[in-house]
Each structure stands twice: as C-alpha cells, then as structure tokens.
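Data deposition worksheet. Section B asks for the primary sequence of the deposited chain exactly as it was used as input, without tags or linkers unless they were present during the calculation. Section C holds the resulting structure in token form. Section D is free text for depositor observations; keep each observation to a single sentence. Incomplete worksheets are returned to the depositor.
Section A, Depositor: J.P.
Section B:
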Amino acid sequence: MPDIASKSFSPLTRWIQMALGLIAMMSISSPQYVWTLFVAPFQQATGASLPAIQVTFSLLVVLQTWLAPLQGWLVDRFGPKFLIAFGAGLTGLGFVLSAGASSTFTLYLAYGALCGFGSGIVYIGVVGLMVRWFPDRRGFAVGMVAAGYGVGAILTTIPIDSMLRTSGHQATLYTFGLLLGAIGICAGLALRAPRPEETAARIALAPQARSIADYSPRQMLGTPIFWLMFLMMTMMSTGGLMVVSQFGPVMRDFGIADAAIAGMAALPLALSLQRVANGVTRPFFGWVSDVMGRENTMFAAFGLEAVAVFVMLLTRDNPALFAIMSGVVFFGWGEIFSLFPSTLTDTFGTKNATTNFGFLYIAQGVGALFGGPFAALMHDTLGSWYPVFYLIIALDALTAALALFALKPMRAAFLQSHR
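Section C:
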C-alpha cells in the first residue's frame, strides 16, 4: 500500500500559501498602525476636534473585531480567495476615499468603516486558512501571518511619514491606498483552502491533541471551554492594551520619555523594541506551543509578561532598562494572537475554524474597550500608574494559572469524551 505522504501536496504548496497570507496581512496593517500620523492632517481637513477625529480609530477597531463572526462566516460561506481579495480592496479603497474627506462623516465611512471591515475580513480569513494548511504546525503558521500584521506597519511607517512631509496627506493616502490595495488583492486571489488529501498526512503527524469532530459556532458557544478561552483572551487583551494605549503618558509621567539612549529618545526607542518583540513572539511561541503544548506555553508566556511588567516598574528610574523591559513585556503578550486561534481550532475542528475564531476575536474588541479608557480612568481616579500595572500583573498571573490548571484539564477531558 503506497505511503499516504506520497499522495500529498508538494511540500512547497503550503509554504507558498503562508507567504501569500503574510503579504495579505502586511497589506492591511497600515490603517491601524500609522493612524497617528494622519490625525493632524485630518483635523485640518475637516476642522473637527481631536476627540471627534479619534472616533474614526475607535470605529476601525470595533468593526475589525466585533464584526469578526460575520467576517468569518462570509469567508467560510463564500471561500477565502475572493473574500480576502475583497477585504484587501476595501481597505485600500478606504485609504483612497479618506484622502478627500472634508467632514467627519466621510472620514468615519472611508477610514473607519471600509478600512475596519476590510482589514477584519483579511485578518480572520488568513488566520482561518493557516490553521487548515498547517495542522501539524498550527501555532507557528498562525504566528507567522499574525506577525505580518505588525511587520507591514514597520515597512510602511517611514515611507508614509516621509511622503506626508513632502507631498501632503492626500497624495500619500492615494498612493498607498492604491499600492497596498493592489498588493493585497493579488495575494488574496492566489490564496485557496487545502483539499482534504493535501492535509491528511499532516494531520496524522500532528503532535497536539485535537478534536476529530468539527463543531459549528452554535455548538462551540454552548461549551464552557470556549467561554473560558474567551475570558482568558479578554484578560490578556485588556492588560496588553492598557500598556499599548498608555505607554507614552506613563513614560512622560515617570520623566524618562525624552531621555537620550544611544542618540535616540527613550520613548521612540521603546516603541521600536515593542514592535519588533510583538512580531517575533508570535511565530516563536506558536512554534514552542507546537512542541510543548498550548497550555504549557500559555503558562510560560503569560507568566513571563507578569514578571516583566513587575521588573519594568522596578527599573522606572533607568530609561534604558525600562525601554528594554517594555520589549520583554510585549514579547510575553503578542503571542496571544497565535496561541488562542491554534488552541481553538485544535479543540473545535477546522471546518468552521474561521467563523469560530471570529467569535473568539471579539475578546480583542472587549479588551480594547476596557484597556485604554479603564487604564486612564484608574490613573485619573487614583492619581498613579502603579495600580494600573499591578492590575496588569494580576491579570497576567491569573490567566497563566487558568491556562495550566483549568483550561488544560478541561480540554483534555473534552477531547477524550468526544473521541
């Protein structure tokens, strides 16, 4: 009897699909990560106040996360190829149309709605594809494409900032909207879902415990495991986004934001380290989880973040160490975007993986609502950032404990009982 591996796809096929997914993710990352560069030009163009302009960013994040189940269902229902290309096109179109925005309504519709909904389709769709193509390296594959969402911003931030200074925001938005939209559409049209025979051998080799059945979103939502994972991802998202949203004010309040480190101000250096760490951690801990197990890796990574936040507080009088430790904090946080999708698919199967992850991804939206505003409220009420960081440490430690002592035995019992 011939070896099943001999009938499987070319070894390069899934890696090409990963590369295409990475490119698609990079093409839709700019609206979120370079938003801050466009705030002042949009204020001048619309004559609106800063709070009114910032509603655009909130709208983008809300539509990207809270509509994730709908976006995932669309991809599962109509296929990834055209939906991902459509999402990339919507994101590019949002950039182009916002170039001519002279009112907040137009800005909300173009930059907020089109970029938010379009990028959400691409993000959910690409992650859903990778968990299918890589049943044996699920954590690593999801981590790689999730890292692309941050890497894309690293590659575009300097060119966009430079063109803004020389050509203005309209030309910049037109140029990068058309360029990134075209790149994303081309990558999306080359993506496809794997055929069953292309993953059969890989599933047999997969080291992680996984479901042999496929669960619908309704079935998944009826299990305690899903809601435990939702709670855990919400807590990690909340803690991480507290740091993301308030890090600048924190460093300024500590009096170290403008301290010179090797000829560079401490704040931009810290932000650069955070972006690099946030990208590297996703495939790294994804790979570790493929080898060590999902919950074991969660315990290690979440615990690392808790310790890093505590040490970062201890180094608040040393700008260089504080900046370095902030990078370690992000190294312990960013992997949630590879560990949770992989664990979810291991548990509930691949057939409805994209839609199922869409429901879990709402936790990121919940974290966004709690993270920034609640951290600012705590600071204004208590007059200090220390309670905020102590809360982050507590959330990290609690989530690490839940991963090892609650999620791990619950998933083992669930998978055993449903074999």
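Section D:
Strands lie at 260-261, 264-265.
The mean pLDDT is 88.
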